[in-house]
Structures are given as C-alpha cells and as structure tokens.
Amino acid sequence: MSPTIWLESLITDTPQEGFELAITLSRRGVKSTQPDVDTLKKLRPDYANNADSLTAASQVIAINFQTVAAANNYWK
Amino acid sequence: MSPTIWLESLITDTPQEGFELAITLSRRGVKSTQPDVDTLKKLRPDYANNADSLTAASQVIAINFQTVAAANNYWK
Amino acid sequence: MSPTIWLESLITDTPQEGFELAITLSRRGVKSTQPDVDTLKKLRPDYANNADSLTAASQVIAINFQTVAAANNYWK
Amino acid sequence: MSPTIWLESLITDTPQEGFELAITLSRRGVKSTQPDVDTLKKLRPDYANNADSLTAASQVIAINFQTVAAANNYWK
Amino acid sequence: MSPTIWLESLITDTPQEGFELAITLSRRGVKSTQPDVDTLKKLRPDYANNADSLTAASQVIAINFQTVAAANNYWK
Amino acid sequence: MSPTIWLESLITDTPQEGFELAITLSRRGVKSTQPDVDTLKKLRPDYANNADSLTAASQVIAINFQTVAAANNYWK
Fold first, then answer.
1. Structural domain boundaries of chain D?
2. Do D76 and D16 meet the contact criterion of CB atoms below 8 Å apart?
3. Do F43 and A65 count as a contact with CB atoms less than 8 A apart?
4. Looking at beta carbons, which residues of chain D come within 8 Å of E54?
5. pLDDT tens for residues A12-56?
6. Is this prediction's ipTM beyond 0.90?
C-alpha cells in the first residue's frame, strides 16, 4: 500500500518481542483493508468493549504468533 | 477461473512483500467466490466499517502469511 | 460419497493451479455436507453478496492452500 | 466415548480417501459433543440449508485434512 | 488453575485415543475460562442443540487434534 | 505495551504447564487490544456465560497451544 518499510524481519530477540510483532502484523492486516486511521479510531469502541471481538482479535494475534515463533525457531 | 497468470511464485524478496502477497491471496479467495467487481465494490462499506469484519479479514491474511512465510523459509 | 475420482493428487504444476485446487477442496467440503446442487445454487446469493460470508469462504481456501502448498514444497 | 474402534489409522491409499477421512473426523467432533443421533438429524436442515454453516463445516474438514495430508506425507 | 495433573503427556497409543485427548484439551480450554461446572452444565443445551455451535466445537477439536497427531508423529 | 517482561520463554517443564502458557498467551492477546482491567472484568459475564464465547476462547488457546507444543518438541 505505502512504500514505507514497516516489516524488515520476522526475527526478534525475545519471545515477548515476537508477540509484539504478532500484534503489529494483526493490526497491519486490518489497516490493509481499512487504511483510514480516523475510521479505525471510530470503530475502536465497537470491538474494545465487546468480549467476542476481543477473543477474535486475540485469535489473529495467535495465528501471527505461530508464524513469528516458527521464524525464530521458538527462540531456542 | 481466468487463464490470466496472477500467481507466479510464493517467493518474495522481503517479509513485507510476503505480507502484501498474503493480502493478494486473501482477495483472490474472495474473488473466486464473487468474481463481479461491481458487487465487491458495493460490499466494501459493509466490511470496511465494521470492526469484526476487519478482524476477520486480518485473520485470512494471517493464515495466508503463514503459507508465504514458510515458502520463503521466513526470509532467514 | 460418490465413487467418482475427483482428487487424484495434491501436486500441481504451478502455485496458481495449487490455489485453484484449494478452491476445489473448499467447495468439496461444502458439497460433502450439502450434496444437492439445486440447494447450493439457491444459497449462492446468500453468501456471494455478503461481505462476511465471502471472507469466510476465502479463509477456507487459505487453509486448504496451506495444505496444497506444503504438498508441493511451495513450488520451490 | 464408545469403546468401538472407528479410527485405526490416519493413513489412506489416496488423497481422496484422506479427504473422506477428514469428513469423518469432522463429524466425530460434532458427535463427541452431541452423541444423540436423533438430535443431530433434527439439526441437519439448520446447517445444510445455510450458506455460512456450510462454509463453517468445510473449514473444519479443511483443518482435519491438513492433519490427514501431513500424516500421509501428502501422498507423494 | 488447579494443581491437579490432568495432562501428563501428548503421546497416545492409538489415533483414536489421540482424538479423545483432543476432545479433553478442547474442554479444558473452556473450563479455563469458566471453571464453574454448574454454569457449564446450564450452558450445555445452548450449544448441544445448535448446529453452528457443534461445528465450532468440532473445529476446536480439529485444531487440538493437529497438535496431538504431530506429537505422535501421526502414529506411523 | 508495558516494558514488564511477562514472556521469557516458550519452554515449559510439562505439557500441562504448556497449556497454562497457552492460556496466558490468549489472555495477553485480549489485553493488547483492551488493556483496561476494569473493562475486561465488566465484560467477563458476557463471555463466561455464553457457550459460543467459551468455545471461541478455547479455540484461541488451542492455537496458542500448537505453538507452545511445537516449541517444546511436544515434550518428547
């Protein structure tokens, strides 16, 4: 979408940084469909206060974390 | 569906290009079920302004990104 | 269900043919639950004009594409 | 649940038999939660005539097919 | 939650026992969020008589079965 | 979000501790989207008393358990 580099590598120093990267990837997936930041802000209360929406968000992070963890050979 | 080649390879130069390819694959999955571009355009406001729909879209991208990342051996 | 052979191999020549096979597998999964073609046709407008249904369909294709891509060693 | 053996092996002769096994696994997953066959029959029209339910059923088959396909080394 | 040991190993003698373990893991996931057994019993009719809920339950089992099957090298 | 270290390693001594870690990862995924603990507490009855929400929560745990189990080579 934008030529800005936001993802240089899947490698992180620690599992926790890997989890943060998984969160970033999940948000980027949302942004790729709705790039307008104002719209995203307006939608925030819809899902941040809904239990099922939060579970769904956690699921996307879990899927992306699988990728990041495998990339880092599970930080072993 | 169409004989046009749109997917020559799963290999990309960078993780970010891999993420873009995952977005393309996700959109192609939609298009394979609804090939009519006008219908897709009409549906856009339905999901681009709905938090749960955006999370669901991000999830499909995450699944496709798993495939692309594995194909590229995680760009290691 | 039917003794007709419809899946001889997971190996395809190109990634794009692999994606087409993933679409076929997804449709077969639907057909295994609802084999009646007329009913399936009647249901088509329900999901082909619904953004969330299209995302869900794309997700099943993405999961099947993971399988097909792994089977083909990512066409490397 | 029942001591009857219904799953002796994940190995199948062909990919198509593997897909059939994935369907069986998906149904067994349902049965483990609702073992009453009469109830399951009564519920059938609910999902067999609903596009989103059919997509969801296809998704479970796709996940189980990943397992069966890996078990068979993709029938290579 | 409880210090009771309920998961000693992912290794099972047969695929079918592995599937039973996947069911156990799925139920434990539910219990970790709602540990009250009486509440769980009260909720049972809600999902045991709903086709989409049963499909969703089968999906969680399928995901856990992937894990158990890989742990057992697919009982090969 | 917070600089506190909460995830030092994906390695656990036992499968059961691995399952507990999967629960932690799932909750962290929720917290990353809604960090306010009071809001999360208020939402609790919404999902802890809803069968489908509990199944969805169990699914996220299952996905994270795949990651943790692979990291530990399935505790073999």
1. 15-75
2. no
3. no
4. 30, 33-34, 43
5. 999 999 999 999 999 999 999 999 999 999 999 989 999 999 999
6. yes
